Amino acid sequence: MIDWDDVVSSTYLPTLKQLQYLVALHDYGHFGRAADACFVTQSTLSAGLRELESLIGITLVERTRRVVRFTPTGEKIAEKARRVLREAEELADLARAAGKPLSGEMRMSVIPTIAPFLLPRILPHIRKERPELKLYLREEPSAAACESLSRGGADCVLLALPYACGDVDCEVLLEDQLMVAFPQEDGAPPEHVTADLIDPEKLLLLEDGHCLRDHALAACNRPELRAHATMLGTSLHTLVQMVDNGLGVTMLPEMALDAGILDHTRIVARPLEGEHTAREIALIWRRNSPREKDFRLLADLLRSAAR
């Protein structure tokens, strides 16, 4: 027997897709970027939002040529939609967790100072050991990766600690020693390099947004370095080219050296000695996630592959 009250009420419920479009527009503040994040065309996203507004009879977004502005009600509904989508994600996670361990789809964000050096070593191992796992990867800086995890855009993150990433659980995979890279033209550096030997005027670091910069400065424990360090590099490869051309010195993670980042250069690298001179590479995920068992299995797999 059909309950017509249920049929009528469900007719006016927003779809998860419409809520996804709304949250993406709220996050990015731009129709084009929001559409890219949802893997749809801009016209599809715009039409979906208009359908949502028509469905609930309220204007959620004020559209102008230059600005996307949410109405006060639109702001409230966007935040509620974010919670609804999170609940839907957790529902899907429960279903996946009940199936075969470490199988199906998983979205993992990886920071740029790990991705090009560690992934080539571990991905073949994962494909061999867990062919049923479809691991979708996204490279993004630490802050963006943590935001993706919080919003539900990522299931887990391969990150370097210490880094504040909200309410998360983690498994440490390995320690990654910080190395000081010198141009060969400066002569042979000492075998034992301590922070007091680094010239603040010559130190080249990554720009803001990369946690490796903060790890390097914390390892040196010299406040004047934070004030004087030249923060120019957008990537470790850029910093290597600067050092190779005699523009200064920099700090590199040992995994980058292992991956051959100094090949065909005239750079000499030495370990930085002292306290807190290594970062911890860890897999993190949202606390109390239904897929915690999967993430711990993945951490074991990553740890094994990295060794």
UniProtKB/TrEMBL annotation:
Query: What domain of life is recorded for the organism?
Result: Bacteria
According to the UniProt entry, its GO molecular function terms are: DNA binding; DNA-binding transcription factor activity
InterPro entries in the record:
LysR_HTH_N, LysR_subst-bd, WH-like_DNA-bd_sf, WH_DNA-bd_sf
List the protein's name: Putative LysR family transcriptional regulator
Family from the record: Belongs to the LysR transcriptional regulatory family.
Which keywords accompany this UniProt record? DNA-binding, Transcription, Transcription regulation
Q: Does the keyword Oxidoreductase apply?
A: no
| Gene3D superfamilies given in the database record | Periplasmic binding protein-like II, Winged helix-like DNA-binding domain superfamily/Winged helix DNA-binding domain
Where's the HTH lysR-type domain?
14-71
What phylogenetic lineage does the species belong to? Answer: Bacteria, Pseudomonadati, Pseudomonadota, Alphaproteobacteria, Sphingomonadales
GO cellular component terms given for this protein: protein-DNA complex
